[in-house]
Each structure stands twice: as structure tokens, then as C-alpha cells.
Design a protein that fits this description.
Mean pLDDT: 97
Helix content: 25-40%
Largest sheet: 9 strands, mixed
Distance between the termini: 39 Å
Shape: globular
Low-confidence stretches: none
Strand content: 25-35%
Oligomer: single chain
Bound molecules: acetoacetyl-coenzyme A
Order of helices and strands: EEHHEHEHEHEEEEEHEHHHHEEHEHEEE
Strand order of the largest sheet: 5-4-6-7-1-8-13-12-11
């Protein structure tokens, strides 16, 4: 029995900052961002957008037309949770009008947890193939102003329906794993922005790739030559290029520079504009590959390297299914990216500094999002979500 991704759709916020603006403010050459870290823009959430509204917007096209009673599990993966207790997935469950006979839970391990959600979902489906699992990853990546991490912010959500009818991609069973207790990137409960040891984090990322690949081989995984494409976690797109070079060296592959780049290039397009979306970024990368590749990818094997600081990493593979093109949401994604509004530095600061009230008062939030759901108010410590007219 094949198990894997039946449907996949992403969403990002209504605004974006071109990194040219940040380069001018910081008086540095914009090529450091465009070429050095491989980012052109970063999505910025409007005050009435958050991980819940983005998650619900990503999942809406996935659940429309589905028999909702078959979706008996919703796994919500996030680093940027909005509540220490209640799962953000429960709000999403209501906004999507899912069946009450459904288990909902939130998973956290920095940028990795969506991958564990997919693996858990595959296991559930293998046990009861008539059931489907909705996996949603949603994050807002925030670093301190004027820090080296500032140009690697962004936000986005991706929704995947995992089932025994994987119209997009079969997830193969072997995984390579690596966990190590390190402090490369973390966010204590009292902080809204991440703490990061930037250079160290890239080193741990590469070390984790090496160990995950070794474990993958030990577990009986495919040889490097059996892969056609690789999709990496993309905190910034240059990181994926560095990772792929690292893997090529490790396996002793003799590919030309062009052949190596061709294995990852199409996974990078959307993330160059969206920025880091933590848990969602690797699967936005998959969407980018599926929707931007010039050739039919049916039967092609994709390697995934998922990394979450702290750290946990997993390497696994998937095989693209015949006819997958008919099930993509390419127009939805391209319209979404095209209609985002560019902001100037003053607006970026207004969005960045937008207050997060903690006094339990009544805080209505003006309508700004162009998406289908919004955070309308924070009232008596409760987040109030609603559908918009769009
Ligand atoms: N033209 C072209 N390239 C230029 C340039 C110019 N004018 N100026 C500089 N560059 C190049 C540099 O040579 C460098 O290239 P290499 O990496 O190939 O050497 C690149 O631009 C970046 O320059 P710096 O190393 O000077 O950049 P920095 O120190 O200011 O910051 C960073 C880079 C450490 C990644 C920082 O953005 C950061 O801390 N980001 C957040 C942490 C992060 O994303 N870590 C990734 C691993 S952790 C993870 O994956 C989890 C997660 O999502 C956070």
C-alpha cells in the first residue's frame, strides 16, 4: 500500500519587504542578501494575520471537496505557537468546519516538527487506510532588529493531506535520524524573537545532514545515485545550496556544478520571495519544485532533509506520482504571491512593532489581510478569529 501526500497547498501573508529596503537602511550591498544568503523578499504578516489565519488559508483549498469525516486527525506543527496550552490547530479545525470526531494536537521542535507530523500521519494511515490526516505547518520567523538574522525573517504555512491515495507523492518508509542537545537557535517562553548563534547554527545544520545521511544508509535507504532531486529546509535559500554541496562531498558524487544545481534549483524559487517560514519552508520548497520544474516529475525520487535547531534532523525520500500536475494549486500560489503588497521601511517597522496586548482588555484589530480568515480581536486574553469576505 502506498501512503503519502494526496494534496499540498501553501499560504503566506499579505505584505512583503524587499531586502533592497533593508540593505539601504543598513547601508550594505544588497547583493549580500540577494546572492550571499539567496533571499530577495520576506513576507510580513498584517496585524490581523497569524499562524492560525495562514494555516487555515493554506488548508482551505485542501479540505474543500473532501469528505471531512475522513479527516480524523489534524497535526499542527509550529515554532511560533500562540498559546502555551491550547493547540493552534483547534482554532483552525473550527475555521475549516472539520468534523468534531477529530483529534487535534500541536507539535514543536523548531523547524523540524512538520516532518515528524508527516511521519506520524503516515503511520496512522498505514494502520487505518480509510482515514486521512491533515498536517499543517505554520510559522512567523522573527529575529531582533539590526541582528544578522533580520534579513532571514519571513512567514508562511503549508497544508498537506496524508492518505492512502497519494496523488502527489508517495512517502517512502526509510528515514535517517539525528538528534543532539545544542543551543544554536532557541526562543525562551518570554521572548517574541529567536536567539541564534548564526554561524554555529549553519555548522550544526551541516553536521546533522552528515549524520542523518549516514543513518539513512545504515537503515537501508537508497543510494545517492537513485535520487533525482533534493529538497532541504531553507532558513535562507543559500543554506540549501551549501547543504547540497556538503552532501555531494560526503557521498563523493562527481556531478558538474550545473547538474548539482539542477537537483535543487526549482525548490528555491518560492522561498526566495517568502523568506524563512521555519516548519513550512521545506514543504513550500517541495511545492516550488512540483510547480516550477519544466519536466514531468512523475516517478522521480526526491530526497528531503528536514532540520530543526536544538536539534533534530531527518532525511527521507518520496516518489512523485503520475498525474500529480492535475492536483496542484499553482494558480492559487502564484496569485497569492503576485498580490502581496510591498512595504516601505516605516510600514515594516509598524508591522514588526505591532503590540501584542497582555492586559486582558478589549483590542479590536483593523481589517488588513487579503486572506480568507483574520484575527479580529484579542478580548479578555482570547483570540477571536473570523472569516473575511474574500
Ligand atoms: N555580495 C555577495 N555575497 C556577499 C556579499 C556581497 N556584497 N557580502 C557578503 N556576502 C556573502 C558572504 O561571503 C557569505 O557567503 P558564505 O556564507 O558563502 O561565506 C554570505 O554573504 C553571508 O554573509 P555573512 O556570513 O557575513 O552573513 P551574516 O554573518 O551577516 O549572517 C547568517 C548570515 C549567520 C546566516 C544570519 O543571517 C543568521 O544568523 N540567520 C539566522 C540563523 C539561520 O538561519 N541559521 C541557519 C541554520 S539554523 C536553521 O536552519 C533553523 C532555522 O530555520 C533558523
Amino acid at each position: 500500500m502506498k501512503v503519502g501526500i494526496e494534496d499540498i497547498c501553501f499560504y503566506t501573508a499579505s505584505y512583503y519587504l524587499d531586502l533592497q529596503v533593508l540593505a539601504e537602511v543598513h547601508q550594505i550591498d544588497v547583493e549580500k542578501f540577494y546572492a550571499g544568503i539567496g533571499q530577495e523578499q520576506m513576507s510580513m504578516a498584517a496585524p490581523d494575520e497569524d499562524i492560525v489565519t495562514m494555516a487555515a488559508a493554506a488548508a482551505l483549498p485542501v479540505v474543500e471537496g473532501q469528505d471531512k469525516s475522513a479527516i480524523r486527525t489534524l497535526l499542527f506543527a509550529s515554532e511560533s505557537g500562540i498559546d502555551q496550552s491550547k493547540s493552534a490547530g483547534v482554532y483552525v479545525h473550527r475555521l475549516l468546519e472539520l468534523d468534531p470526531a477529530c483529534r487535534v494536537v500541536e507539535l514543536k521542535q523548531a523547524c523540524y516538527s512538520a516532518t515528524s507530523a508527516i511521519q506520524m500521519a503516515c503511520a496512522l494511515v498505514a494502520r487505518q487506510p480509510q482515514q486521512k490526516v491533515l498536517v499543517i505547518a505554520s510559522d512567523i520567523a522573527r529575529y531582533d532588529l539590526d541582528s544578522s538574522g533580520e534579513p532571514t525573517q519571513g512567514c508562511g504555512a503549508v497544508a498537506m493531506l496524508i492518505s492512502a491515495d497519494p496523488k502527489i507523492m508517495e512517502v517512502e518508509p526509510v528515514s535517517g535520524l539525528y538528534t543532539e542537545d545544542v543551543m544554536d537557535f532557541w526562543r525562551p517562553n518570554y521572548r517574541g524573537t529567536a536567539l541564534v548563534d548564526g554561524k554555529y547554527s549553519t555548522k550544526v545544520y551541516l553536521k546533522s545532514l552528515k549524520h542523518a545521511w549516514l543513518d539513512y544508509q545504515q537503515q537501508g535507504g537508497h543510494a545517492f545515485s537513485e535520487f533525482n532531486y533534493f529538497c532541504y529546509h531553507q532558513p535562507f535559500t543559500r543554506m540549501a545550496q551549501k547543504a547540497h554541496s556538503h552532501l555531494l562531498k560526503q557521498v563523493g558524487a562527481s556531478l558538474s556544478a550545473a547538474e548539482a544545481e539542477a537537483q535543487i534549483a526549482d525548490t528555491l524559487s518560492y522561498n526566495r520571495s517568502i523568506g524563512n517560514s521555519y516548519t513550512a519552508s521545506i514543504y513550500i520548497g517541495l511545492t516550488s519544485l512540483l510547480e516550477n520544474a519544466e519536466h514531468d516529475l512523475a516517478g522521480q525520487r526526491v530526497g528531503f532533509f528536514s532540520y530543526g535547531s536544538g536539534c533534530v534532523a531527518e532525511l527521507f525520500s518520496g516518489v512523485v506520482q503520475p498525474g500529480y500536475q492535475a492536483h496542484l494549486h499553482k494558480d492559487y500560489h502564484q496569485t497569492l504571491l503576485a498580490r502581496r503588497q510591498s512595504v516601505d521601511y516605516a510600514t515594516y517597522r509598524r508591522l514588526y512593532d505591532y503590540p501584542n496586548p497582555v492586559d486582558g482588555g478589549e483590542h479590536a484589530i483593523a481589517a488588513e489581510t487579503t486572506g480568507p480568515f483574520r484575527l479580529a480581536a484579542i478580548s479578555q486574553h482570547k483570540r477571536i478569529y473570523e472569516k473575511t469576505a474574500s
